Amino acid sequence: MISCRSQVTQMIVSAKVRKSLKWTQVAESIGMSKEWTTAGCLGQMAFDKAQAETLGKLFELPDEAIAWLQIVPYKGSLPTSVPTDPLIYRWYELVNVYGSTIKELIHEEFGDGIMSAIDFSMDIQRQPDPKGDRVNVVLSGKFLPYKSY
Amino acid sequence: MISCRSQVTQMIVSAKVRKSLKWTQVAESIGMSKEWTTAGCLGQMAFDKAQAETLGKLFELPDEAIAWLQIVPYKGSLPTSVPTDPLIYRWYELVNVYGSTIKELIHEEFGDGIMSAIDFSMDIQRQPDPKGDRVNVVLSGKFLPYKSY
Amino acid sequence: MISCRSQVTQMIVSAKVRKSLKWTQVAESIGMSKEWTTAGCLGQMAFDKAQAETLGKLFELPDEAIAWLQIVPYKGSLPTSVPTDPLIYRWYELVNVYGSTIKELIHEEFGDGIMSAIDFSMDIQRQPDPKGDRVNVVLSGKFLPYKSY
Amino acid sequence: MISCRSQVTQMIVSAKVRKSLKWTQVAESIGMSKEWTTAGCLGQMAFDKAQAETLGKLFELPDEAIAWLQIVPYKGSLPTSVPTDPLIYRWYELVNVYGSTIKELIHEEFGDGIMSAIDFSMDIQRQPDPKGDRVNVVLSGKFLPYKSY
Amino acid sequence: MISCRSQVTQMIVSAKVRKSLKWTQVAESIGMSKEWTTAGCLGQMAFDKAQAETLGKLFELPDEAIAWLQIVPYKGSLPTSVPTDPLIYRWYELVNVYGSTIKELIHEEFGDGIMSAIDFSMDIQRQPDPKGDRVNVVLSGKFLPYKSY
Amino acid sequence: MISCRSQVTQMIVSAKVRKSLKWTQVAESIGMSKEWTTAGCLGQMAFDKAQAETLGKLFELPDEAIAWLQIVPYKGSLPTSVPTDPLIYRWYELVNVYGSTIKELIHEEFGDGIMSAIDFSMDIQRQPDPKGDRVNVVLSGKFLPYKSY
Amino acid sequence: MISCRSQVTQMIVSAKVRKSLKWTQVAESIGMSKEWTTAGCLGQMAFDKAQAETLGKLFELPDEAIAWLQIVPYKGSLPTSVPTDPLIYRWYELVNVYGSTIKELIHEEFGDGIMSAIDFSMDIQRQPDPKGDRVNVVLSGKFLPYKSY
Amino acid sequence: MISCRSQVTQMIVSAKVRKSLKWTQVAESIGMSKEWTTAGCLGQMAFDKAQAETLGKLFELPDEAIAWLQIVPYKGSLPTSVPTDPLIYRWYELVNVYGSTIKELIHEEFGDGIMSAIDFSMDIQRQPDPKGDRVNVVLSGKFLPYKSY
Amino acid sequence: MISCRSQVTQMIVSAKVRKSLKWTQVAESIGMSKEWTTAGCLGQMAFDKAQAETLGKLFELPDEAIAWLQIVPYKGSLPTSVPTDPLIYRWYELVNVYGSTIKELIHEEFGDGIMSAIDFSMDIQRQPDPKGDRVNVVLSGKFLPYKSY
Amino acid sequence: MISCRSQVTQMIVSAKVRKSLKWTQVAESIGMSKEWTTAGCLGQMAFDKAQAETLGKLFELPDEAIAWLQIVPYKGSLPTSVPTDPLIYRWYELVNVYGSTIKELIHEEFGDGIMSAIDFSMDIQRQPDPKGDRVNVVLSGKFLPYKSY
């Protein structure tokens, strides 16, 4: 009996290691970006029927798990509110150090409102650099103005 | 007597409102990016002597405050570990929802290590879009491999 | 020197008590709803120039405070993450008890996405009832579907 | 051996996915609203004997589980005090941003007291809108005045 | 300028010590119980105009403070979520040790619902006892049944 | 193997539902109050040998569990420091809203010291009331004066 | 205006440094132990009138402060729930490492109940030792048996 | 497979209840104090080979568990940072109420440094008293001066 | 099915106790330092294929576990944000007591930036000393200057 | 009136910026290491009379402040239990990532006990390196074995 999506995430993560799959391969198999696909496989997005069935074959999941992949999960992928993992912490630190700056500059350009985390996409690329390659990340989120009424 | 950098930050923020300055103007005055300049003015970066003096004039700061702008501040710009402000929270949410994805994809491309938050830059731009303009943010951080020894 | 919006909020709250004003009067003075106006006066929304000047007269605020009313504030009106005030706690309790239900029913009707708290309005009314009058609240938020990419 | 209600909730959630049921169907089966029924199935309300037996058939639950459905559960449906799921967080954010406003306006209209979260009902509906459909939620709670003595 | 009720609470507490008043005297002056009166003076209840004026004279408060006493305060009288003071902690401990018992016995007698903390009164008395006097506290709260709909 | 009292509590709670027992019946079986008996069965008190054996028969517990009922448990019956369950939360709220009042009035009557939560008893009764029945709770705790030395 | 005991504590601590007093001298001046006296001066105990007046002269306190010394304070002398100061932390660590042991051994000797922290005294002495002097602390608390009823 | 010391602790605690052993007997079996022995059995100290084997026989532990008893455990015996159990809480309360006093008096006698919790021993005894027996605890810790360099 | 690295860590820790291995032996077997090897075995570093296979033989791990050893783990080896274990707490205390000092001195010597915890190594040695041997730890981290842009 | 050491720390920090002093100069003035001196000036150590007077002249402190420098402070230099400043956080991260490793290796070499943070010294040096200079830190702490008794 599967009673929550995180059990399916564990099955996927376990199969990925056993079968030495790469997230880019997984993404290609369903024709979506590697960022959205990985987030979905890690329990943060819902898949449509065709995608779920393709993933089910790739990861050799039982039918019940394939059904779960189409259910909207309870989101949030971190075990603690301040992440302990150094790679993820650096992102938390960016929000902490630059958070007030981001707020000021978006408001200066757009007025009161937010950058959407829902109508949102992300692209992560290697940027070659003679002084050491860089991780280049492009975040794109729709600006949503606060409604006054 | 000024005994911590946050008193200077308050003076700057207060002067900016009183004098209706924009962060982009402030950045131009010292010839740096709007992102780094704003972060510095909000108490997250240290300025060199010339920058500090220019800012001192712009914001009409006392000499003691100009000295403080050259001191490395205790960083972290948020009052709570989970931010309450909706704009900043959306960024925290991104780290929460996409954190494990970012980790997986950077490790898949680069191996064990992190994306630096120190050798780092950020660029925030308006991206016109007929369905509603978007906030476009480019983050660039050097990849730092974990040393094995 | 005013260095943050909460000082202005204190001035407003203090003046409101001293002058025995009602929030509905305040809202009428600027021609907006009582909900949005009160939220703005309590430091959760930004006003335009005309609104800020009207409020400045009503609450007898200094010019510097009127400038601050036009700045987007750092939002979040509660002193603790779990509110202690019984009236506000009941709302927190609703989110706690009904949170998973709201999630299930919105996803069942709309698919993956959220109910916006930005493109949002709220209307609070007294609903007469012989067994004891009721508080009737209508919340309206745009549905925002999660983007897949 | 079932030793707490959450085990029954897991059985229900698991059966719902396996059998592709909808909450509206579940609600119809017992003749109650979709909001109250879903909350009950997710472990936040107690059912009477007839309701519990109907649900037992629908979800193919063992007799012990049907007995548990009639027991008042330990309520609270969120795993953390600040919810990480974006849909539920938006509601937490509403309480945070509008909490003090709600408090002010209810007190202005009714005096000291609270809006009951017990003598309470909720109705969630889709509101068609050319600019994007909206989620419309009506909350109705009895006003309870503070007793002075 | 008084900008929150807690400033008035401090004035009252300070005057009470300076003038060696007793809470029972204060309660008599406004003709209410000592429990409700003390809670009000400590910033947990709102007074009507006559009560506020009587208290204003007793504690020699300025007019602005008397206006504040008629405003519903932001409630919650403890500085930390788990109280450090030994006397108050014992009550927290009672809730912790007996909380599940209270829940079970009220549900067994009344069904699903709560004991109101709003339509509520409390009476604290000394109960002479040869083995050492006891504190006797009677709590009376209306039972509010959960509404099903 | 039973390695902590909470396993026995789960056995008892499970048996109580399966066998439709009431706490008042359980209390009668051992000749103690319903409050103390329930607290004991929920893992907050230790039973003597005769009581434990009677309970063992009533709940059909194994011998090992009967031995555990005679061991003093690690007390505290709530899963979080601020309880999420609405019924129990109302009690936490009473401590929060009335905590400072209780402290003031006990000190005014008795001087420095506490109301014992150990030499303590509680009695919960239904109090019929035409406006809605009330929960009446009598708490009795020995006053313990702070020792000065 | 003094509005809480901690202001008096600051006056005492400040005067003690300015006048180079020792706690043992302070204790002698009122004829009590150094442990109880220090706790009282640090805002954890209430003094009687004679003691308060003696301390008032010793620390040159205003009359209002002397009145406050006779009021039972809100107790708890640590700024965080886990103390950061190394000396005090070692005591917290003792409770953490030995807490379950203390519980087991007191219950084994006395049955269910507690060691009182109210009917309690403490004596701190230097114990000479050739391998390095030791701090010797004797704690004496009345055993209070849990009441069964 | 045993993968952490706490599994061994559970075996010991379970065997102790099953076999009705007392901690004083356990301590005698290895010739150490009851305080240190109990702490060790509860997973706070490491035993030598002979002690571990004796305990293994007494509690009928498997060989793997006996090996684990000789490994230094991850210490800390409380499930929450503020303990909920009333007996242990009283000790936490002592640290909270008397913490600053202990700090002041040790520094007054010894200068800057700490009382060791490592080079430490504890002795718990019953002290007969006509007004009710007392728990007498002697704590002895080496004073360690802060090194200046 | 292995679904996270911590299951492998448990297998390693369990095998190490069963087979009485030492970390220095484990380190020698793969030709790396004892510090990095231990961190890796405890789930904080990723191994290459050859290292993982050697460790697999040494600890008699299944193939699936060997695959997991080559995956970058979610790092962070402590169960609570403030560690309870006395040895590890002393290190936390160092950061707490000396943290601001370390910050000041590194900035004084190097300017704004950090000491890397990624391009980092650590060496732990016994330093004989007639007054008691000392633990000598050398930490070496690359200085990374904050980028200004 | 100075009522706690942190006021003196603010005076020192303020004077250091105003007078452009360096910590190495401060250390030389009292003939102690830069690490211990800085920690002391930042409120973590107590100075002797001669040191305090020298520092008083250097920082132009009032006599009352010089008296406070000789008092043992309440230690702990970080405003939050998990530090937000990136430089200090890296040290917290080291404890988190390497904490269990440090524990294992010290126990393997020394047996049960701790590395003292009291009988402790620290030396921070620049280590030139063609690939980027490194921060080299040597920590030396006496090993303290756990006493068994």
What does this structure look like?
Chains A, B, C, D, E, F, G, H, I, J: Residues 77-149 form the Cyanate lyase C-terminal domain. Chains A, B, C, D, E, F, G, H, I, J: It catalyses: cyanate + hydrogencarbonate + 3 H(+) = NH4(+) + 2 CO2. Chain A has 149 residues and is an alpha+beta fold. The first copy, chain A, folds into 2 domains: 5-68, 434 Repressor (Amino-terminal Domain); 86-145, Cyanate Lyase, Chain: A, domain 2. Helix content of chain A is 48%, strand content 18%. Chain A is built from 6 helices and 2 strands. Chain A has helices spanning 5-18, 23-30, 34-41, 49-59, 63-68, 86-110; strands at residues 113-127, 134-145. In chain A, strands 1-2 form a two-stranded antiparallel sheet. In chain A, helix 2 (23-30) packs across helix 3. The radius of gyration of chain A is 18 Å and the shape is globular. Chain A starts with a helix and ends with a strand. Strand 2 of chain I pairs antiparallel with strand 2 of chain J.
Q: State the low-pLDDT regions of chain A, or none.
A: none
Strand content of chain A: 15-25%
CATH class of the largest domain in chain A: Mainly Alpha
Pair with the most extensive interface?
A: A-B, 66 and 66 residues
Counting helices, strands and paired strands, the structural category of chain A is: alpha+beta
Considering the protein shown, what is the CATH homologous superfamily of the largest domain in chain A?
A: lambda repressor-like DNA-binding domains
Layout: helices, strands, pairs:
10 copies of one chain form a homodecamer.
Chain A: H1 5-18, H2 23-30, H3 34-41, H4 49-59, H5 63-68, H6 86-110, E1 113-127, E2 134-145
Antiparallel strand pairs in A: 1-2
Helix pairs in contact in A: 2-3
